[in-house]
């Protein structure tokens, strides 16, 4: 609804407008094409490999199939997607000066932030759905059906995508240089969270309930029967059985709660940072 | 109708120990064009960025039509067109899409949107490029689209930061023509520029700033009169070449004229003592004495003299 007398639209209309054109920009960008190609190449390669080897790791059971195909790969694709679509989403507005085109208009910074966030989420969801389509097509071909756990896993992955984008947008708001914000995001999801998970579990012997990658474990664990125990006291492994450490697995409720907290906290912090950031 | 106004109230901006703006008080009202002059780092862009909420003031308020830009951004900037630095447009979008985005944000009614976009694009002479992606555009072409975006909602106030920067000579001339054409409507234009001749040609008033402090704000004529030792300069274009003796014996004798010197065959430069009244009377006297006047305008060098007088050093 336009508020023509004051020369502005309602916040809701502005939000839709920014989402629409940011999404169009994502859709036409080279990185979207790269992600589509990447998903297609990996899935086609996997299709060929499974067809050729008839691997029992895949074909033994429906949950085994979806666990190996979807559960084994989706987290890395979600990471790539959030880096591609969120890593420089806000920092780019400063470094590339696109913010100078949008921000001096009668529109709230929060509207710009949320609009871009929604656009990145929709673009990322398309990638997720493409991966889902490949997985389902193969699953149905091998008569695996569609187990409820797989649908749950998809929903958890979707929530993880939303949350990871929230974290990425927050870091993107923190920096004005696109390469730094992208690098921080990659380091964070590839190394920092995983190292913290391991250190916390192995050295401190405490549950890494503060880690988003720990929470993300539910995406793959839901495809395991039975669902892994919350706490496995010690697994002795390694040459000569010298290593022994406990393992934690987030329960579904716990995983969802951790993601929800990350989503809320990071979104609020990101919004606050963008509101306060200056174009200079 | 509310009187158009932009007002800086005790506006200050600091970056660490650097004072970019120091207690700036400036009130501009009515339909006019005001040139905002100062050397690099003087605080021009900082001021304009505060007025568009791109940065926040450390102290003070920036008001547009009485509305605080930071706390009531939508109300303050609703009728304002802005061009700050050279904004980049999402490279995958075409000018039509980028302008549609701004039009939608600004509430340009759907039925008028297409026509309005085509009008402003025609104004900046970019019709051929309307449906090409912006990513491949030169800086000058992007600047033209940025100018078009600032005109989309037919704004009553325009805040322009060096609008002709990045354009070739033809582009600069076209931007000057656009701004001059905009002046004919009821508009307040506040424009920073480094090009003194541009300001002298377009603007009615001038504000000068240096080291974050306002040095002067007045009409062009008053500023030049006040800071040029009351000596102003006009350039007279002639319909036909004039005898140098006639310049020396007739024109130089007109009361108020300090010197009259031939610039070339058809142009005479007259220095006179006084303000706008004197300027008008000299024109009248020239015509009475059958001097074939083709054009008569204040010389931009007068503003340059004032500028150099007031601003002794740059950063």
What do these coordinates show?
- The complex is a heterodimer of chains A (280) and B (315).
- With 280 residues, chain A is mostly helical.
- Chain A is 71% helix and 6% strand.
- Chain A has helices spanning 11-28, 30-53, 56-59, 62-86, 91-95, 99-102, 109-141, 148-174, 178-203, 212-215, 217-221, 252-276; strands at residues 2-3, 8-9, 231-237, 243-248.
- In chain A, helix 2 (30-53) runs antiparallel to helix 4, helix 8 packs across helix 9 and helix 8 runs parallel beside helix 12 (252-276).
- The longest helix of chain A is centred in the middle third of the chain and has 33 residues, at 109-141.
- The two termini of chain A are 33 Å apart.
- Chain B has 315 residues and is an alpha/beta fold.
- Helix content of chain B is 35%, strand content 30%.
- In chain B, the strands form three sheets. Chain B has a six-stranded mixed sheet with strand order 6-7-8-3-9-10, sandwiched between helices. In chain B, strands 2-1-4-5 form a four-stranded antiparallel sheet. A four-stranded antiparallel sheet of chain B has the order 12-13-11-14, sandwiched between helices.
Can you describe this structure in just a few lines?
The complex is a heterodimer of chains A (about 280) and B (about 325). Chain A has about 280 residues and is mostly helical.
- Largest β-sheet summary of chain A: 2 strands, antiparallel
Give the total of beta strands of chain B: 14
Q: What amount of the residues of chain B lies in strands?
A: 25-35%
Number of helices of chain A: 12
SS class of chain A: mainly alpha
Q: State the separation between the terminal residues of chain B, measured CA to CA.
A: 42 Å
Rounded to an integer, what's the Rg of chain A over CA atoms? 21 Å
